[in-house]
Specification:
With 154 residues, the chain is of the alpha+beta class. It has four helices and five strands; from the N terminus they run αβααββββα. It starts with 11 loop residues before the first helix and ends with a helix.
């Protein structure tokens, strides 16, 4: 008859249960949500320094740094985007909070208005998937091979 390691002395069953509990506790101790901030973290003290009609675009860049992005077609707006993402253990990343600060400028680059957009303001900020859809991403192996063969040599 063979005996296992834990059958050699009395109390082996309790020791086995205790060791399993300790190892399970150690394995689960590392499971914690990761929090990752992205973008510009703008304090209220920095926003207080921005005075419409007095603050210029240069002053704005000195206070808040380079904008996350600027409005297209000379719209006279600059945007500072900040978001906090949470990644639970074994889960997908999700956005916890997102704040967008929209600063309007006039033709001579003076600040005319400051607007804060977030979940509480009622404005929905559109969020695209992590990956932008591009043509060619959904091709299978055969489509890739035949599309290469269809190309004309130069």
């Amino acid at each position: 008859m063979t005996r296992g390691l834990f059958d050699a002395f009395p109390g082996a069953r309790q020791l086995r249960i205790m060791l399993v509990a300790i190892f399970a506790g150690l394995a689960l101790a590392g499971c914690e949500s990761r929090i990752a901030p992205h973008g510009h973290s703008v304090d209220s003290s920095e926003l207080d320094q921005i005075v419409p009609g007095e603050t210029t675009l240069g002053d704005l860049r000195a206070i808040l740094g380079k904008p996350s992005f600027e409005g297209a077609f000379d719209s006279g707006k600059v945007y500072y985007l900040s978001e906090v993402m949470i990644e639970p253990p074994g889960g997908r990343k999700r956005i916890s909070t997102r704040t967008m600060i929209v600063i309007s400028l006039d033709e001579s680059d003076f600040v005319t208005g400051v607007e804060i957009r977030d979940e509480s303001s009622g404005n929905t900020i559109a969020y695209l998937d992590e990956k932008s859809p591009t043509p060619g991403d959904n091709f299978g192996v055969t489509e890739q091979i035949f599309s290469t063969l269809r190309r004309k040599p130069r």
